[in-house]
Amino acid sequence: SQTIHQWPATLVQPVGSPLSLECTVEGTSNPNLYWYRQAAGRGLQLLFYSVGIGQISSEVPQNLSASRPQDRQFILSSKKLLLSDSGFYLCAWGVSYNEQFFGPGTRLTVL
Amino acid sequence: LAKTTQPISMDSYEGQEVNITCSHNNIATNDYITWYQQFPSQGPRFIIQGYKTKVTNEVASLFIPADRKSSTLSLPRVSLSDTAVYYCLVGDGGATNKLIFGTGTLLAVQP
């Protein structure tokens, strides 16, 4: 069966510090992968998606970047965090037509 | 991707049937209608998807009228554990299978 992992589960970082969130998928090959952010009480905002190794598309201009060094690995990064980067970060993979399977998420608090 | 409109919140009691309606006036011919459920501090979970008429699975039913400009998610005999945010999405998937989430409907089930 397919599984998606995200870590860490929670993270508290100071403003200006770097960030690295990792997402890995098991049980599938060449998946479409996605990073979302959800601010408190809001809907999900699509940040990045990838249709293959090294292929990253950005949906919104921002302080974050994404990379896909391996087929089933998706990394979200920042060189210097801002207060506005706080939120709930979710990784997902495309299962089928309009269906995505989401990971457990990372709660990021920037102080 | 067609824009969707749904109520911000709804209240219900245990054992009742709940119907959440979503409006999508600009739905395109190739678009499917998909519903997700999200519990606090978790990623969204795919519930049901349809193109026209009625779709039913073990969790819910989806009613789509002939003009497809709206859809109704029906949850039979809700319980406290059905308290969650429900998202209606419309799209054709395409090569990237991107999803655009709105703010959803917060369903609160009371005892």
What does this structure look like?
The complex is a heterodimer of chains A (111) and B (111). With 111 residues, chain A is mainly β. In chain A, strand 9 and strand 10 form a beta hairpin. In chain A, strands 2, 4, 5, 6, 9, 10 and 11 form a seven-stranded mixed beta sheet that branches. Chain A has a four-stranded antiparallel beta sheet with strand order 1-3-8-7, with no helix packed on it. Chain A is 0% helix and 60% strand. Chain B is mainly β. Chain B contains no helices and nine strands. The radius of gyration of chain B is 13 Å and the shape is globular. In chain B, 33% of the residues are buried. At the A-B interface, strand 5, strand 9 and strand 10 of A face strand 4 and strand 8 of B.
Summarize the structure.
The complex is a heterodimer of chains A (111) and B (111). By secondary structure, chain A is an all-beta fold. Chain A is 0% helix and 60% strand.
